[in-house]
Each structure stands twice: as C-alpha cells, then as structure tokens.
Amino acid sequence: MSLQEKLDAFKADFEGKAPKQAVEIMHRATAELIASGQVAQALKAGAVAPAFTLSEADGGSVASNDLLTRGPLVLSFYRGVWCPYCNIELGALQEAWPAIQATGAQLVSISPQSLANGRKAKRDKQIDFPMLSDPDGKVADAFGLRFRLPDDLIDLYRSFGVDLPLINEDRSWTLPMPARFVVGQDGIIAYAEISPDYTRRPDPADLLPVLKQLQGSIAA
Questions:
Q1: Per-residue pLDDT at 5
Q2: Alpha-carbon distance values, 131 to 12, 24, 71, 198 (Å)
Q3: Angle, to 10 degrees, between the axis of helix 151-159 and the axis of helix 20-36?
Q4: Residue 79 burial (CB < 10 Å; 0-12/13-18/19+)?
Q5: Cα(183)–Cα(55) distance, rounded to whole angstroms?
Q6: What is the pTM of this model?
Q7: Alpha carbon of 167 to those of 55, 109, 113, 116, 218: distances in Å?
Q8: Which is the most buried residue in 133, 146, 183, 204, by most CB within 10 A?
Q9: 220 burial type by CB count under 10 A (0-12 exposed, 13-18 middle, 19+ buried)
Q10: What's the CA gap between 94 and 41, in Å, rounded?
Q11: Is residue 109 within 8 Å of 97, Cβ to Cβ?
C-alpha cells in the first residue's frame, strides 16, 4: 500500500467517526490555506536552501552544512507527534531510509515540537534518521512553510487535547506546511514538494530518481 493510500484510509476512518462540524472546520482551514497562495511563496527547486543548525531528539546538534559534506540532503518538514498523518509519513520515510542511504544522501525530519516530543516520536515510530526540533518554527519560516492556524481550528484542536503551545513550547499556534526538499551538495534545492493539504503527501519513492541523478552527477 502506498503512503497516500494509507493516509486516505486513515482519513476515511477518522472522518466517518468524527463530528460533522469538526470535519467541516478542518476542511475549511485547509481550503483557506490553499486559497491564501502561501504555497507559492515557499522555496522551490533552484533556490538556495537556508543553512541551519538544530538540536536532535537524542541529543547534540545537527548542521545542514555538515550533512551536505557527506552527500545530498533530504529535508522532511512535519507537524508533530500529535498528527497521525505525520506519523504515518514518518513510518513510510523509515521504510525508504535504506534506499535513500544507498544513493549517498542524508535524511532529517524537522518539526516545531519540543525535543521531548521528538524523542517520543522517534521511539514510537522506531526512526533511525535524525529528528530535529525547530524552535519557534524559524527554519520552516525560512523555507516559507510556517503559517498560523485559524481561530476556529485552534478551538477545535484544544477540544481534542492538542495543546500546541505545550507541545511546541511556543505560544504562537503556528505550524509548517508538510514539505519535502532535496538539497544538492552545492546548497541548491533540487526537489521541492509542499502539501498545504496535510492529508496528502508524496510517496518517498518519488525522491529516489532525483537522488540517483544527483549521485550520478557527483560520480561524473
């Protein structure tokens, strides 16, 4: 089953059980984000990727420039451990991690959640690649991904027990749009996929042709 098929199955099950008003609020928030045009402002292929240094869930710091000395870099921005769609995607990325490694590339995930919640996500999903904490969403902002949730969605999340100021240690009620980037060793973005609809994510296998092309250019 593809990643999107897994996401679609979860969505159908959730929306079949959730209150109609809750589903309407979620759909409206997604439609408003798409209509805002913010995705057009996010960084695209051909842009220079912002450099960063972030803390890793298991301790220590990770610098993008250091990773790029080893090979191309895959960046996966996600919302947090509280998001079931993100957890499904993390599982798919973990399955694809050996194939990504085989191209000589590095992979990291980036979320605004606290380090403690990053450790929980890493443990629960048995993730082997680095999971980085992005305080206040500064790196997501640099990539053009960060947005504020609408008030009715904030109220809905609170009713579900999703307290983002606590989860993220940030009072702003902001999140990144889920996104994936491939950055070449020259620091230029070679692939960009942004998902303003958080229930839709590209399959990790979509990364492999790009990574193999970069691998071939390095070998040449």
A1: 97
A2: 29, 32, 18, 19
A3: 140
A4: buried
A5: 20
A6: 0.95
A7: 16, 17, 6, 9, 40
A8: 183
A9: exposed
A10: 29
A11: no
Residue 218 banded pLDDT, cuts 50, 70, 90 = low
Average pLDDT of the residues in 141-167: 97
- The total number of residues shown for the chain amounts to 220
Task: Please report the DSSP string for the chain in residue order.
Answer: --HHHHHHHHHHHHHHHS-HHHHHHHHHHHHHHHHHTHHHHS--TTSBPPP-EEEETTSSEEEHHHHHTTS-EEEEE---TT-HHHHHHHHHHHHHHHHHHHTT-EEEEEESS-HHHHHHHHHHHT--S-EEE-GGGHHHHHTT-EEEPPHHHHHHHHHTT--HHHHHT-TT-EEEPPEEEEE-TTSBEEEEEE-SSTT----GGGHHHHHHHHHHHHH-
Tokens (6 digits) for 176: 């990144």
Instruction: Provide the token pair at 13.
Output: 């099950």
Average pLDDT, the chain: 96
> What pLDDT digit, counting tens, does each position of 190-217 carry?
999 999 999 999 999 999 999 999 987 6
Residue found by looking up tokens 């307290």 in the block: 163
pLDDT of 62 > 90? The answer is yes
